[in-house]
Amino acid sequence: MDKQQRCIPILIVGIFTLMACFTGYGSYSHSAQMCERDLNFALSETLKHKKSEAITPDTIRVFRQNLTIDVLKNKSFVAFSVADENSDDGVLKSKAQKWKRGDSEQIYRGYSLCSFWDVVRMSDQRLSLSLLIVGMISAAFSVLVIRRRQEALGDFIFVGDVALSVSDGFFYDKSKKRIAFTPMQRQFMSLLFHAEGHEISQHDVCEKLWHGKDNAAESLYTLVRRLRKVLGEATDLSIELERGKGYRLIS
Fold first, then answer.
1. pLDDT per residue over 14-68, tens digit each?
2. Which residues lie below 8 Å from residue 114, measured CB to CB, with a gap of 6+?
3. How are strands ordered across the β-sheet holding 171-172?
4. pLDDT one-digit tens code per residue, 96-125
5. Residues 6+ apart with CB under 8 A from 188
6. Is 181:230 a contact under the CB 8 Å cutoff?
7. Sign of the CA dihedral 36, 37, 43, 47?
8. pLDDT over 70 (residue 83)
9. Could you tell me the CA-to-CA distances from 196 to 107, 145, 199, 225 in Å, in that order?
């Protein structure tokens, strides 16, 4: 699996993970807002019947009785508050509410000691978990498809849009149509496909294709000239002659 193909499963997992985090956070925020609304309601009901500004055990008991969310009932309390206490410190709390009786006036807030995980358990995380599972399954499936595709293509050597079939020795274009090379052209192209850097010296070509022939260089020149025409019509490949090095296949 090459570097580009390895990125596909990672990208799939990353996308689904981001989606899961987004939906999970949205569900968490919704549950946290429900808790804060419940704290607001419970504090409002408690202050309606409060007769003194003191916070007593009875105040806490009444406050908890007015809560409708079970997880809050044993982890919440009432405390004095500053009117402008609006910092987002991650603590579940109600809005500041004013109590007044005669000349007595005080501001209270309802607070909850619920942890992050308490709120997570309250929230509906089924969608986010489903997205994570789908992401992992999709990534695993993409790995399987890529590996099977590589196994299916394992018989081929690719350069540009041309494929050499190792089993039959023929060349195919991007539409899987066999390219009409002559036997000698196929031999020369095969040498280039298998050579390191797809480059081979003139001497090596002459030795492999016309061993001992006196005018091998002329035959090679003619072969390359005709081969370049076929490549230009059927592929994106070209053959360059580098002085002192030889012929190189370029895509």
1. 898 999 999 999 999 999 999 999 999 999 999 998 888 999 999 999 999 999 9
2. 35, 71, 72, 75, 76, 92
3. 156-159, 162-165, 171-172
4. 999 998 888 899 999 999 999 999 999 999
5. 205, 209, 223, 224, 227
6. yes
7. positive
8. no
9. 82, 29, 6, 22
CA distances from 227 to 50, 105, 187, 220 (A): 99, 98, 11, 10
CB atoms within 10 A of CB 230: 17
Structure tokens given for 225 = 């000239």
Contact indicator for 188, 149 with CB cutoff of 8 Å: no
Residues belonging to the chain: 251
Angle at 168 between CA 184 and CA 205, to 5 degrees: 30
